[in-house]
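DATA SHEET
Item: assembly model
Revision: 1
Owner: S.N.
Input lines:
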Amino acid sequence: MQAFVQSTGENKINVRQICFILIAFNVCGKLLLFPNNLSYYAGNGLWLAALIDFAVHTLSVWAAAYACSKSDKTFYQRLVITFGKVPAKIIFSLLALLFFAAAIVPINEQKLYVQEIFYDTIPSLIPFLPFFIFSIYAVQKRFSNTGRAADICFPIFIACFLALIISSFTEINLSHLLPVFNEPINNVLKSSLSNIFRFNESAILLAFMGHFKYKKGDCTKITLSYALGGVLVIFFCILFYCVYATLSPDQFFAVSKTSIFFSAINVIGRIDFIVLYALEIVMVFAVVLNLQLCRYCLEEITGYKNSMVLSLAINGVLIVLTVILDHKFGELQKLYGGVFGIIIFAAFTLLPALSLTIKKGAKNK
Amino acid sequence: MKEKFYCLIKKLPSLVICAILAVLLFLFFVNDFGLVDIHKTSVVMSLGIDIDGEDLLVTAQIAVPQPSENGENTSFTEVSGKGATVADALNEINSKTGFYPKLLFCRLILIGEDCKNKNLFELLDYFYRNEYSQYSALVAMCKGKAGDLLKKPTPMANMTTLSIQRILSEELKKSANVSTVNLKMIAQTHYSKSNACYMPYIESSAQGQASGGEQSGEKFNSKQSQDSENKQGSGGESSSKQGEKNGKNGGGQEQGGSSKQDGGKGQSGSSSKQGGGGKQGEQANEFTCRKTAAFSNGKFTGVLNEEQAFALNLLKNDIRLAIVSAQSNGKDYAIGLRNSRGKERLNLENGAFTFSLTYSAKARIQGVTEASTPKKLAENDVITKDVINATSSAIKSAAQSLVEFCVKNNCDLLGVKDMLYKFYKNKFNVFEKDFLNKINVAYDIKISGAK
């Protein structure tokens, strides 16, 4: 037990930071291709498709938060207590794989975003590669660092998101949302399902389980924070559709598109880039979070504590995959938007459900 | 030995990071990360699209940054390319200039009159596909060839593009003088259920020898002086309309001097040519776009005259101050309209649809063909009922004329079908066909005094 306390002593995060992650990182991960992908099938019903995704996943987040309230053991420890070491390692391996798989699309999205928006030429893959230097450094860091990053990112996110909304407001036309429920429900569901692979916040909470001190009411705080993130994303989706209407499916990287009609841009130039660059900081931390958690899972499974080596290994595989998947984002999205994405989501949803059923273990002193 | 090994393992991450940094630095210095030297490139500011036989003729007005020790120094030139599509034509421009034209700074797309028979979205297809073109780029149609228009010297700016952008500005849009639209607005209205769109129709005329003033002519609301904000030229009254002159330049490759002009205010036509892209000896031109080109189903349907375009702008745009002419008691009034609000509504009553055009504004006399006295000027805000009625009927008549155009050409510029779909979706399939002919139109114009 003493060993556990020592191992997690420097790996602590607090509830405030978790809430920030569930708002800022959650929203930032869904500002690039999520809105236009939703509108592809759901049209002006994109908000409904997003609502379905968030409603389902909010339940999952609640389940994970509720499981956190039941014990101060980590998820891995509880799995060991319940199923034994080998099944626990198998489940955690699966979780590590899921976190890794969940990071692939966002990283490739980021790559395309950087190449298309921040460069006025078509650059090669090379300008994106420095991202992995940051990633190698960040992935080996512990949860306490993740929490500090969330503390720094949250105010940046709030300020930028507000600036983005304000600069987009002049261009919105709410009548584009009419008629309400225009698209058949099948299309809305198809839209929901094809983007559901982006929802893994409940699994993030499972990884944080036992690494934060649970107090009464934290479950509500965590769930509401996630729901607030959902509301912000849905709001942004609505705003995006009100700006672009039927052109939405073709508007990739929504976050960079809604404010380009802001009148000051015509006079001063792309001042919206200040906001986009600042948001990029948050997005980068959001993207590496999955890899950090993957590293954490591998550490728990192997017991190998040199996090830098694990980080190098994870990022090495990712670099190879990024090179292989260069110019294949369409295929990647098809893969994730299909059965594979649903499997990922199902696994991310089932694990919190599982966490409700496993043994709590004795309380740490 | 073991200690040394562990020490090395401990240092491994920093060593790896240093190695990666070294590789990146090397790549940066040998390849510039694909960055382009500004002195070796050019920036496409605007594109003109014309028809040349079976092909499209694309003319790009390009800003070429020049190395200079004395600050900003840019020259402008026009380069043309031909091809089956805009992309083909741009590729030819590429082969002529040695750089690939990126449209990141292309803020204006001009469509020549001869493109009338082509589908608009066939012409604009490239801009919607190309991830580097901005949806905020302005689109306009022009009388004559777009390429020729871009080559015309203008006293308003040292580049025709800037001069045209000025007359398509947001400020002018807010005065109901121009139907400014961008790529996004065009596509949005075209892909709506109305399937119609519009864009400003630019006309050019030679500027007189006197400094830039207004054009004379039979304009709907230009008998009176315009608000000074909206004037393109300052000071003088140019009266002599010297007819259109399609300034032919010998090829599109000229590169001229680069000295910037001071906005052309109060300058004569001849002096304005200095440094204006090497177009010495040509008559300076001024541009107006108070007419509007209308498209339905991507096809050109006609040009709205100034009266119709004014009504369209009043209803569709957020107007700050519009000037309308009204006649009362044998006098011509220029009425300024503020707090302008245009609204369209579609109502279903007794199985028939009524399309209501509601417009309200506060009126104030801006000018009158009568010598005034200080006392009368002090009562400027008191506007008589006769003048108000005359103003209302002028606006109503413009709106009626606009609706007539829409019905006659089956061109739903006012978005009536879109409203039918949005508010009466279940009746859309029944009424959609020939809908504009089936509806009743009600006009509700409310003009009141400013005080």
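QC remark: The two ends of chain B are 95 Å apart (CA to CA).
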